[in-house]
Design brief:
This protein is an all-alpha fold. It is 60% helix and 0% strand. The chain is built from three helices and no strands. It has helices at 12-70, 73-82, 104-110. It is rod-shaped and about 125 Å long.
Length: 126
Amino acid sequence: MNRRKHANTVPVAALVRWVVAAFFLCTAGLCYVYFKNQMQTTGNDIRELETELASIRAQDDTERAQIDKLSSQSYLQRRLAEGFIHLTPITDSNIVRVHTGGSLQRAAAAASLDDLQPVSNRIVAQ
């Protein structure tokens, strides 16, 4: 009989244990590297978006300043004096006055429907 038959066997349980531990460590290392890479990429994307947002805000501020400048009263009066803007005066016949008193009955008594005049939005050629 061969008594050394069991002495030369491969320790499968210990080998499987070390393979599983190595696989776990490799997986953990790869996940760590993947998450660090993802964090770096996301940080770069955030930095690019913040730069773009800052440039859009600066552009918005310049546009608002331009709007404020072009809608200022002094600029509009200068353009009116140059003749670029043509304004027509509003006559009293084109104005409708509605009295907003304390109660509806007093307002109705003060101004009846016959007192109201229709308003025309048509442009009158001069």
